[in-house]
Write a structure and sequence with these properties.
TIM Barrel; about 50% helix; single chain; 8-stranded parallel beta barrel
Length: about 260
């Protein structure tokens, strides 16, 4: 059984929802990434989404765009990101790790090579933001062969036909984008989100996690009542951006702890 499936089964038995924080690998400094990952777990993370820095992160708002820029100033590569995962695995063999990124770095490495090396490093799932399921056959074959869960986004505008296609190829969980826009946007309508998630459940037999716009205890709690998991990205990256290197891990851990309390409460 995959770590992701095992995590959701354990949470379900305990009546809990998944807390899935996101950070960008290499931000604000590559030497801090593994420590930040352990800090996320210490704060109560069930799954970690680790962003692969990219020059044109089109679905991300300014906060995560700047995180990629900071990481790329250090020349952080996909190979280095996998090295960070492998280092994290030296102490933590249980917490699922999902890489979140754009297709170009994976294609440049070669899908099969990437999948094999990602699995060897300890990656459990990959969310490729800009690869639609209709064009993902080669990538999906590589993931299937390596035992990696392909995670897909579902947007408010995703058609029923597209959801059916995603349901046929996704595993692990699906990521519901809670609003039209980029990461870090606000103005969530939870009544509308709940209606949409209920419709998606009719077609998708996987955990549904909500992301985009979740930034405080109130929004995290509201999202957790609807979905199986809550993804928090921009707000955590802001915490990193506003901290110095000495306090970043402590501040991020404290913030994630407050999100854990809100979701469990």
């Amino acid at each position: 059984m995959s770590r992701i499936r095992s995590a959701f089964e354990k949470l379900g038995k305990n009546g809990q929802k998944a807390l899935i924080p996101f950070i960008t690998a290499g931000d604000p400094d590559p030497v801090l990434t593994v420590g930040l990952m352990h800090g996320l777990v210490a704060g109560g993370a069930d799954i970690i989404e680790l962003g692969v820095p990219f020059t044109d992160p089109m679905s991300d708002g300014p906060v995560i765009q700047h995180a990629s820029e900071r990481a790329l100033k250090y020349g952080v590569s996909l190979k280095q990101v996998l090295g960070m995962v492998a280092e994290f695995r030296e102490k933590d063999t249980e917490t699922p790790i999902v890489l979140m990124g754009y297709l170009n770095p994976f294609e440049a490495m070669g899908y099969e090579k990437f999948a094999v090396e990602a699995k060897a490093a300890g990656v459990d799932g990959v969310l490729t933001v800009d690869c639609p399921p209709e064009e993902a056959d080669q990538l999906l074959d590589s993931f299937t062969n390596a035992g990696i869960d392909p995670i897909f986004l579902i947007a408010p505008t995703t058609t029923s036909e597209r959801i059916a296609k995603i349901a046929s190829v996704a595993s692990g969980y699906v990521y519901y984008v809670s609003l039209k826009g980029v990461t870090g946007a606000t103005h969530l309508d939870f009544s509308e989100i709940e209606d949409r998630v209920n419709e998606i459940r009719k077609q998708v037999d996987l955990p549904i996690c909500i992301g985009f716009g979740i930034r405080d205890e109130s929004t995290a709690k509201s999202a957790s009542r609807i979905a199986d998991g809550v993804v928090i990205g921009s707000r955590i990256v802001q915490e990193i951006e506003q901290s110095d290197c000495q306090s970043a891990v402590k501040n991020v851990t404290a913030f994630v702890t407050s999100m854990r309390r809100a979701i469990d409460g």
